[in-house]
Design a protein that fits this description.
The complex is a heterodimer. By secondary structure, chain A is an all-alpha fold. Chain A contains one helix and no strands. Chain B has eight helices and no strands.
Chain lengths: ~40, ~240
């Protein structure tokens, strides 16, 4: 386990980072779209 | 056809708004169950040790990378046959999530390959065609963003989706057609699985979680596109509050 920990946890860390980036970008895009369309939050 | 009613942005926006939270919730719940089985219950692999647990994200991401492109091609057909406005927006909404799934599949595959194969990357048929898939996704995103007119932009993205989809069966069958470093399919409808039951369960549940996530992200992005394109229409005043 210990020898492979970098590769195993590195995979999960990068996946979490990518999903985090996508979810935040979805949220920001939606917030801007709502603001531009003048819809109340 | 009744279902085509949801090709109208107004109807789609309201329906997608109701469905989206359920898909997010299902994605989180299934991922929690899948990870619990994958890390808590599934045994350590006899030859690979614990590093095999990368497959719980690698395989679902690779499946989604191919499926999302096929769905884009399906919407491209809808665009050309029925000329529906939502089809183009769906292609554009699917592409970024498909691209991210492809990146996850490539990166986790490399991180799994180093300790098991001894290399992060080999130019074998499976990996190279998956890399081409990433370029196709980026091409669809870049092409649709480069054209200002929404109708022309949608059509350009649809054409590239249709041309690129030929790559998907090549990715899938590459491990059969060529002598690749990448192993063959572990799961097939035609034969029994080549792994322990709990490992398979965790992988399939994570696959379902990836589906739910991809649907939720696509619905969310499609709703933003609708707001951006239809912001001057009266219906947004009533339906856009959700």
């Amino acid at each position: 386990m210990h020898d492979y920990a970098f590769y195993l946890w590195g995979s999960y860390a990068i996946t979490a980072l990518i999903i985090g980036i996508e979810v935040i970008s979805l949220y920001l895009r939606r917030r801007k779209a709502r603001a531009d369309a003048k819809i109340e939050q | 056809m009744q279902i085509l009613a949801y090709a109208a942005p107004q109807k789609f926006y309201a329906l997608a708004g109701k469905l989206e939270p359920w898909f997010w919730a299902a994605a989180v719940a299934l991922a929690a169950i899948g990870l619990y089985i994958g890390f808590g219950l599934a045994p350590t692999d006899a030859t690979q040790g614990d590093v095999y647990r990368v497959i719980f994200i690698h395989v679902p991401a690779a499946w989604m990378s191919m499926w999302l492109y096929v769905i884009m091609a399906f919407y491209a057909v809808l665009l050309f046959v029925f000329n529906t406005r939502m089809s183009g927006m769906m292609i554009r909404a699917l592409a970024p999530t498909g691209a991210w799934m492809t990146v996850i599949a490539l990166v986790t595959g490399a991180l799994w390959g180093r300790p098991t194969w001894g290399t992060y990357w080999a130019w074998d048929a499976r990996m190279t065609t998956e890399l081409i898939l990433l370029f196709l996704y980026l091409g669809v995103i870049a092409l649709s963003n480069a054209i200002d007119d929404p109708r022309r932009s949608d059509r350009a993205a649809a054409i590239l989706s249709l041309i690129g989809v030929v790559n998907v069966p090549i990715i899938y069958f590459s491990v059969k057609w060529w002598n690749t470093l990448h192993q063959g399919a572990s799961v097939s409808l035609m034969s029994s699985p080549k792994m322990a039951r709990l490992m398979l369960d965790a992988m399939l549940i994570m696959g379902l979680a990836a589906w739910m996530y991809a649907i939720a992200a696509t619905l969310n992005r499609a709703r933003s596109f609708i707001l951006e394109r239809e912001r001057d229409r009266a219906w947004l005043g009533q339906s856009g509050k959700h």
